[in-house]
Design goal:
Elements: E1 20-24, E2 30-31, E3 48-52, E4 88-90, H1 92-98, E5 102-107, H2 117-131, E6 135-139, H3 143-155, E7 158-164, H4 170-178, E8 182-186, H5 190-202, E9 207-208, H6 214-220, H7 222-235, E10 241-245, H8 250-264, E11 275-281, H9 286-292, H10 319-328, E12 332-336, H11 338-350, H12 357-371, E13 380-385, H13 393-399, H14 410-418
Parallel strand pairs: 5-13, 6-7, 6-9, 7-8, 10-11, 10-13, 11-12
Antiparallel strand pairs: 1-2, 1-3, 4-5
Length: 419
């Protein structure tokens, strides 16, 4: 089944509920959205996505936050902590330094729990309510666990989070703990955690809310809607390119789905669709490997390492959705080393935009692509930053300046400043 940008909207099948259904991205199998718990296609085990009989239009959107876009979502609002409406920052010094026509930063770290994951969880936990499940679970490099714990608590549902032992930033573990999740530290990396959670879900022990869950990505596609609306209001046009960090590739897949639906609705011409450009850390870059070698599938990396913990993932489960998104929009993918990520984190902070390391990968990747001549100086670019600086306070402290000890007197402070 094609994930082409110009694929026409499908007629609603018999299984559609209020014009909404699930469809397999490979074999085309269609399923009722809320009759049973399902994550992948029962016929071929490929990924599912939510489909709509009538793709939404901009004039249907009103209100604020993620639920401003309820016409583009598969469930009504059940559980919300006012997610969305994150800022699109201008960064004039970086714009000049990078040398593009315009550079904006969409800072998803300004969501309630400090990352973009809130968008997915408000819809995903809503789907859990529709399905009547009572235990939620996820594997996480940190941000997913924090968001799921918060939304699970808000919904009054039991929440399990599986984390790779010793590999998750303390700020994220603290969030999940305070929101009341049961934290299970696994002897293995993120991909091992996800394998276990998928097994638990297949046995009916918990409802999986990683981005393998098609409902979660529906919330995340609202990032794309906000970017398009805000960029057009500010600059009178849609961006030429969106550069974003890639871990499990859920945002890449979600943004592409957003753009496909707008093209289907006639709201966006194919030539207006921003080029989706993914950035990974060099030590965890299976998506980049697939793009650079023109592979049909992403090959799992069993060993991954980077200080950008949020994208320390070797098997992006949304690769089958994300690869077509990058290719169909004329985008690309690039890997950057940890030093370039830290430098970008510092430089964003100098513009007042505080992000965790994985978020800064987007700026680092843009710089690399400018150096290679891939991104033109006439492009209008949006960098997506996915998590707040305080998600990883140790990394922030390491990247920042050391405190300076001074005497406990005004004269002593002035003398020190004079030195």
């Amino acid at each position: 089944m094609s994930l082409s940008l110009t694929e026409p909207a499908s007629a609603a099948p018999d299984v559609a509920d209020d014009g909404v259904w699930l469809a397999c991205i490979d074999c085309g199998e269609t399923l009722a959205p809320f009759e049973s718990v399902v994550y992948t296609c029962p016929e071929c085990d490929s990924l599912l996505e939510v489909r709509y009989a009538e793709p939404p239009t901009f004039d249907q959107f009103e209100g604020s936050g993620v639920w401003r876009y309820d016409a583009a979502l598969p469930v009504p609002k059940h559980v919300s902590i006012d997610e969305g409406d994150t800022p699109l920052y201008s960064v004039p010094r970086l714009e000049t330094e990078v040398g593009v026509d315009s550079l904006q930063v969409k800072h998803e770290g300004m969501n309630g729990t400090g990352s973009f994951k809130d968008r997915g969880m408000t819809v995903g936990v809503g789907a859990a309510k529709e399905l009547g499940v009572d235990r939620l679970a996820c594997a996480s490099t940190g941000n997913t666990s924090a968001a799921l714990a918060a939304y699970g608590a808000r919904a009054g549902m039991e929440t399990l989070v599986l984390l790779p032992a010793g590999k998750v930033a303390a700020g994220k573990v603290a969030q999940a703990s305070l929101h009341g999740a049961r934290i299970l530290e696994v002897d293995g990396n993120f991909d091992v955690c996800l394998d276990i959670v998928q097994d638990l879900a297949s046995q009916g022990e918990a409802y999986l809310l990683n981005s393998l869950n098609p409902f979660r990505l529906e919330g995340q596609k609202t990032i794309g809607l906000e970017i398009l609306e805000a960029h057009r209001e500010r600059l009178g046009s849609f961006p030429d390119r969106i550069v974003l960090p890639v871990g499990n590739a859920g945002n890449t897949a979600a943004l592409y789905k957003c753009f496909r639906e707008l093209v289907q609705a006639g709201e966006l011409a194919p030539e207006q669709v921003p080029k989706l450009t993914g950035v990974q850390a060099s030590g965890a870059a299976p998506m980049v490997e697939a793009i650079e070698n023109d592979l049909d599938e992403i090959q799992r990396w069993d060993s991954v390492e980077t200080r950008a913990t949020a994208i320390r993932i070797g098997n992006p489960v949304n690769g089958p959705k994300a690869l077509p998104g990058i290719r169909e929009t004329g985008g690309t993918a690039v890997a950057v080393d940890d030093e370039a990520i830290t430098e970008a984190q510092r430089d964003l902070a100098e513009e007042g935009v505080g992000v965790e390391p994985a978020s800064a990968a987007s700026l680092a990747g843009l710089r690399e692509l400018r150096d290679r001549g891939v991104v033109g100086d006439d492009e209008q670019v949006v960098c997506l930053t996915t998590g707040h600086l305080l998600k990883d306070p140790d990394a922030a402290a390491a990247a920042g300046a050391e405190p300076e000890p001074v005497p406990g007197t005004t004269d002593g402070v002035l003398e020190h400043l004079g030195e």
